[in-house]
Amino acid sequence: xxxxxxxxxxxxxxxxxxxxxxxxxxxxxxxxxxxxxxxxxxxxxxxxxxxxxxxxxxxxxxxxxxxxxxxxxxxxxxxxxxxxxxxxxxxxxxxxxxxxxxxxxxxxxx
Length: 110
Prior knowledge:
By secondary structure, the chain is of the alpha+beta class.
């Protein structure tokens, strides 16, 4: 099974859940709501899960061997780091641009 696509759908800087991801396999099967979580030992991915009647969480889908789990985790975290860098660069650029727009607007009103 090949990972044919990883889409970072949402990035959050404020919480331990850093991103929500969709992963496509073999251009034929997609898994939504994979989460990138910041834990005490660094970032990790959490597969989509549901709450059982006992109150525990159980994965809906998950890798069945450690080799594929590592491959999946590495690919998702690499894509997350790239998306985060783009997001931060865009936020920085927007902040710089909005500052210039405010300055220009203030000059125009004088």
